[in-house]
Amino acid sequence: MKVTVVGAGAVGASCAEYIAIKNFCSEVVLLDIKEGFAEGKAMDLMQTASLNGFDTKITGVTSDYSKTAGSDVAVITSGIPRKPGMTREELIGINAGIVKEVTENLVKYSPNVIIIVVSNPMDTMAYLVHKTSGLPKERIIGMGGALDSARFKYRLAEALGCPISDVDGMVIAAHSDKGMLPLMSKATRNGVPATDFLSKEQQNYVIEETKVGGATLTKLLGTSAWYAPGAAVSAIVQAIACDQKKMIPCSVMLNGEYGESDICMGVPVIIGKNGVEKIVNINLTDAEKAKFADSAKAVREVNGDLKF
Ligand SMILES: NC(=O)c1ccc[n+]([C@@H]2O[C@H](COP(=O)([O-])OP(=O)(O)OC[C@H]3O[C@@H](n4cnc5c(N)ncnc54)[C@H](O)[C@@H]3O)[C@@H](O)[C@H]2O)c1
To answer: Average pLDDT over the chain, rounded to whole?
Structure first.
């Protein structure tokens, strides 16, 4: 399995590191436009190989897409991250141009690639990749829900006072502060509904802290987070590489599912060797359905700013 990661910045390098440490992949190519940057990150990571016990070969290149040829999976993390006080949506102008150009280059050298879109505003960037790549819709996956769900589980475990391994939960809809939908109705502690243990006030706290999870970190760090985003991407790459058929909420092109069409939104999907193998339809409460529709409306407005 050959994986290309475009953008050797905070998220790209973290993603390459987690992929390598899990040792399921033969080759990772890091690509960046900053002269020598990806080469430096790749060399630094390779010098952890004997310490961390992995055999994945990581190489770095500056803008040379010929070195990405034959990639099975490509991750797009190139673009600018948000600064404190910014929304993900404010990044669209710069990132749309970058994502479009990167997509064209990737597909030129790897026509059967599966693309994982990370750059923000992610749901709109995933939509842009659909409109410009010519790839089948199963081969384009937006990463947002995997990260937001990890943040949801972190907050659930905190509120429940239990280990994170005890909890399960999922976040769907848009990857945005206002639009994401943490599914409290489906969250569990060892199979028991989390709502059995948490007061309404605690439930609201978990939901609200999950929604501003990225903004909280951006305020603390001065830029957006990278460890959990990198780990979330690597989990999706592993599900593809190992054909795990894992159910992960991802931003995918909807064609009537969840009442929406011609839009990328976070919904539970089965991820395996072919990319998106199935969109899973789960029952939502009427309130959740209404929130999903509102979230889609907001994503559509941002999509409207795209110029192809
Ligand atoms: N979807 C998510 O859950 C999620 C989570 C975290 C960050 N993000 C987004 O991921 C993106 C990257 O974040 P980061 O913190 O790694 O930023 P960063 O600034 O650390 O890294 C971005 C890298 O992209 C490179 N780059 C810019 N233009 C390029 C091009 N045309 N070709 C190749 N490389 C190019 C830059 O040189 C830089 O090294 C941002 O848009 C951020 O908002 C998304």
So the answer is: 97
CA-to-CA distance for 8 and 54, rounded, in angstroms?
20
* Cβ atoms < 10 Å from Cβ of 294: 15
pTM tops 0.90, yes or no: yes
Please enumerate, by residue number, every residue annotated as part of a binding site for substrate: 82, 88, 120, 151
Percent of the chain exceeding pLDDT 90 equals: 94
CA-closest candidate to residue 234, choices 16, 58, 26, 71: 16
Residue 182, ligand 1, Cβ within 6 A: no
> How far are the Cα atoms of 12, 116, 274, 307 from residue 138, in angstroms, in the given order?
22, 11, 7, 23
Residue positions in the annotated binding site? 7-12, 32, 82, 88, 95, 118-120, 151
Q: Does any ligand 1 atom lie closer than 6 A to the CB of residue 14? A: no
Active site residue 175: yes
> In the prediction, which pLDDT does 139 show?
98
All structural domains of the chain = 2-143 (3.40.50.720), 144-305 (3.90.110.10)
- Of 138, 154, 153, nearest to 255 (Cα)? 138
Mean pLDDT of 129-146: 98
Q: Which pLDDT tens digit goes with each residue over 165-195?
A: 999 999 999 999 999 999 999 999 999 999 9
User: In the structure, what pLDDT confidence band is assigned to residue 205 with cuts at 50, 70 and 90?
Assistant: very high
Q: Ligand 1: distance of its center to the CA of 75 in Å?
A: 11
Average pLDDT over residues 37-44: 98
Extended beta strands in 79-126, E state: 114-117
Report how far ligand 1's centroid is from the alpha carbon of 57 (Å).
22
The values of phi and psi at residue 254, to 5°, are -100, 145
